[in-house]
Amino acid sequence: AAAALGRALIGTLLLGAVKDDAETVQVHFAGNGPLGQITTIASGRGLVKGFVGNPLCDLPLSANQMTNVGAAVGSGLMSVVRNHSNWAQPYTGSIPIFSGEIAEDFAHYLAESEQMKTAIGIGVTFTRKASVQSAHGFLVQILPFCSEETILKLEENIKKMPSLSDTTVDRSAYSIIENILMDIGIGDTYNLGSPMYGPCNPKDLKDRMLRAVASLGSEDIKRLLQEQ
């Protein structure tokens, strides 16, 4: 359960990171596996939260001694809802769950529903006592002007990367970027953020309330003021 939720949280954060800071993205896996459903929500500012239907789900390792997330999730439907306070309606996209391994499902969704060429990797590591040690991932978006030579080099670099679930290698954000962009070059402009559970602090709650009020019509706002 922890591996599946960790992957889903990271994947949802990555989806939110490539859009506007004020946009929120909600991901829902409705699988028929013993894990039950997974729901995660994140903002472009790095706020994230989520839950699973059966947090006690603990399947045996797969044949290659990896966490068997695909079997825990099962088959079903993956849905993504993007929303913004300036939009009249949220954008919703749904596809059949591709493998249940989460990262592959996110990549398949981006290709099928948002026509976005991407490479995505997600990993969750555990201590010897089976508690979560770290969770990390990457999302590379291929832009239209990207050369074929650069695309081939990206594919080569990603194939050479150690598993994101390997606890013996450096998995800092910068080291992942270095591995992906080896012999391509890292630009001078980048930023690092710190994901947080949220929204849970006063400023975020205030911003959320202001966005909710802004979405109301003038008559509704007048009525609420009169009632108070």
UniProtKB/TrEMBL annotation:
The keyword Ribonucleoprotein does not apply. GO terms for biological process: protein refolding. InterPro entries: Heat_shock_Hsp33, Heat_shock_Hsp33_N. GO terms for molecular function: protein folding chaperone; unfolded protein binding. Residues 1-24 form the signal peptide. This is Uncharacterized protein. GO terms for cellular component: cytoplasm. Keywords: Signal.
